[in-house]
Amino acid sequence: MTPEQMRMKAMLLRAQADELDADAAKVESVGDDALERMRKSCQGKKRYATVEAAGSAAAARQKFEDHPLRIYECGFCRQFHLTKAPLDRFASFAHGKRP
Ligand SMILES: [Zn+2]
Fold first, then answer.
1. Fewest Cβ atoms nearer than 10 Å: which of 15, 55, 59, 82?
2. In terms of Cα–Cα distance, which of 98, 96, 99 is closest to 34?
3. How far is the CA of 86 from the centre of ligand 1 (A)?
4. Considering only CA atoms, which of 32, 26, 44, 41 is closest in space to residue 8?
């Protein structure tokens, strides 16, 4: 594991610890796979600092999208992104399981 990967993993574990109230079993279940997928899903996406900013961007983009857009807080950058992924798929993703 490179220093960069270790830094990102620490960041991810901290973010998950916040969200899961430091549920140790769940934090330990975060593998490098989950980290990598979270990083990839963050990179290349537009970040919104507030949920309001994401909301107006979603409303503007929705006109050109076939699927409903959802706003989510990114566990990686702690800002907000838009996704077309259905809620159940994203929930599995967020908990580090394979979709
Ligand atoms: Zn992000």
1. 59
2. 96
3. 18
4. 32
